[in-house]
Structure formats: C-alpha cells, structure tokens
Q: What sequence folds into this?
C-alpha cells in the first residue's frame, strides 16, 4: 500500500487535499479513485485512507481509520556526520533514517571536501529533508528524523549533548559492540569523520569535550559505511531490530 507524508492536521473521517508532490506522484503512477493509501503527518501513527479524487496537480483522500503504529527505536540516536564528497550524504541520510536514527547532524570538518554556506547550504538542507521524507515513507516510519542545520565541528562540540557522544575511531581500544552490550539503551550521538577521518587535533578536541572513543573492529570503514554500521550494531545490541 503506498505511503505518503502529509504535513497537515489529519483526523479520522476527514477528506483532505493531498500535497501537490503527492498528487503529482499519484497521477504519474495512474492510481484511480478508490485506491487504498496510508498517510502520516510525522506526529505518530498513520491513517488508512482512500483516494477520493485525482487530477494532474490535485488529489484528495478520505481518512478512514487511525492506526497507532510506531516503529521507532526506544532510544534516540543522533548521527553526527562530517560532510563527505559528492552525493554520499544523500545515501547516508537515507540509510540512517531506514536504520532508525532519530536525528542527523551534518558537520563541517577540516578534511571535508564539500564546503557549504549560505544559499547553497540552505538548498542542500532542503534536499536532505526531502530524503528524510522519502526514506520515512519507504521504511514505515511515522515520525520524521530531525535534520539539524549544518554546523562547524568545534562550536558543535561545545554545545550541550543529549547523552554520551561516541567518536568512532579505528585507533580506539574499546569496541562499540562491547560497550553497547555492557551499557543500557540510552540516547547517544555517533560522531563520524569525513574521507580521511578527523584530524588528530579534531579527535583530541572531541575527547576533551567528553566524547568516548570506540572502534568497530580491525577494518577501516569508509565514511558512508561507518555510521550505518554503528547504527546497526546498537540496534542489534539494544533490541531495536
């Protein structure tokens, strides 16, 4: 059953106009009135709905029944990802949402190849927000992961943290898997460097700010792999899979 995000008030029994991008998609795939849909607005739960009318740029749906479906992890994980090159961030955001990340924090680090500021940063932010929506639609999540604005690493390290910050480093002695098995589920932030990793100075700054350095084994993972592997490790250890 097709699932769509509708950022508007939803109520059982109501007939609503669907967002224009959703209406356009339904028109392209040639769905007809009477087709079954699932709609959610990011506030939790979802609605079984029926497509009522459809045109080239407009469609409406009747909300038939509310379903209190939740698939969120019982502990919030933030993925703090230093900007990688090219379109890798799209992949990271998409897969992090599928793996249950509650929030994503893009970071500008010294070895980040991509440099964003001003209007360009705003456009990438809007693009990544769209990736969050589409990944939530696909994966069955009814709450959107929060996408924080791009931040420079050092000011971000000085900001308050919700739970421990974990610096993923191949030089760390303790493993993430071992730490998770010995630690109760809780809010955590996973800190992942760009291609080439964080500099020694950046790692020292993270540790000085209270971050815990943990490894994921003897192999060095690419930046687009490390955070996703860490999310999966936590999910396996803390029972969210």
A:
């Amino acid at each position: 059953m097709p699932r769509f995000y509708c950022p508007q008030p939803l109520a059982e029994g109501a007939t609503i106009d669907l967002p224009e991008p959703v209406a356009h998609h339904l028109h392209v795939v040639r769905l007809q009135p009477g087709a079954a849909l699932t709609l959610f607005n990011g506030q939790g739960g979802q609605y079984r709905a029926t497509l009522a009318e459809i045109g080239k740029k407009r469609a409406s749906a009747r909300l038939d029944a509310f379903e209190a479906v939740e698939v969120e992890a019982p502990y919030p994980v933030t993925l703090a990802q230093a900007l990688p090159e090219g379109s890798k961030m799209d992949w990271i955001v998409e897969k992090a949402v599928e793996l249950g990340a509650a929030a994503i924090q893009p970071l500008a680090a010294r070895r980040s190849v991509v440099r964003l500021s001003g209007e360009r940063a705003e456009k990438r932010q809007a693009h990544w927000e769209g990736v969050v929506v589409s990944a939530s639609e696909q994966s069955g999540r009814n709450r959107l992961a929060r996408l924080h604005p791009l931040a420079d690493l050092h000011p971000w390290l000085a900001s308050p943290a919700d739970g421990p910050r974990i610096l993923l480093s191949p030089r760390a002695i303790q493993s993430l898997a071992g730490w998770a098995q010995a630690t109760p589920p809780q809010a955590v932030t996973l800190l992942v460097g760009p291609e080439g990793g964080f500099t020694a100075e950046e790692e020292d700054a993270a540790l000085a700010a209270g971050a815990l350095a943990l490894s994921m084994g003897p192999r060095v993972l690419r930046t687009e792999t490390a955070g996703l592997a860490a999310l999966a490790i936590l999910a396996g250890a803390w029972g969210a899979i």
Summary: The longest strand covers residues 46-54. The mean pLDDT is 94. The chain has two domains: 3-67, 77-238. The domain at 3-67 is CATH 2.40.240.20 (Ribosomal Protein L25; Chain P).
